[in-house]
């Protein structure tokens, strides 16, 4: 009976020095891992909240960019006029995948 949580090695696979199974990769797995992504920076605004501001940025970008992957909020700030908050702003780093020809 096995008590560790490491996967069973495939036929022909050994174990590395730490005892974890060396599982041979399939060609399909390697090819899927070879991707290129572009990261752009956007600023979304909303009169309601930072969450809505970030959502506006992503939803607007999705109209012209395809295969969006990850959005990271990098900065939050406010627009203030006459001592009152008038707009929430979210700076978003957004990645999308380049397609191979």
Task: Compose a concise summary of this entry.
It is built from 2 helices and 3 strands, in the order αβαββ. It is of the alpha+beta class.
How would you characterize the overall build of this protein?
The chain is an alpha+beta fold and about 100 residues long. It has a domain at about 35-95: Dodecin subunit-like (2-Layer Sandwich), CATH 3.30.1660.10. Helices cover about 20% and strands about 40% of the residues. The chain has helices spanning about 25-35, 50-60; strands at about 35-45, 70-80, 85-95. Strands 1-3-2 form a 3-stranded antiparallel β-sheet. A hairpin with a 2-residue loop joins strand 2 and strand 3. The radius of gyration is 22 Å and the shape is elongated.
List the topology elements:
Layout: H1 27-33, E1 37-46, H2 50-61, E2 68-81, E3 84-97
Antiparallel strand pairs: 1-3, 2-3
Through-space gap between termini: 49 Å
The average pLDDT score comes to: 81
Strand order of the largest sheet: 1-3-2
Remind me, CATH topology of the domain at 35-97? Dodecin subunit-like
The class by helix and strand makeup works out as alpha+beta
Q: What is the H-and-E element order?
A: HEHEE
Fourth-tier CATH superfamily name of the domain at 35-97: Flavin-binding protein dodecin
Helix-residue proportion = 10-25%
Annotation field: number of helices: 2
* Rg computed from alpha carbons, rounded to a whole number of angstroms: 22 Å
Largest sheet: 3 strands, antiparallel
Strand content: 35-45%
Shape: elongated
Give the class-level CATH name of the domain at 35-97: Alpha Beta
DSSP E strands, number: 3
Low-confidence stretches: none
CATH-scheme architecture of the domain at 35-97: 2-Layer Sandwich
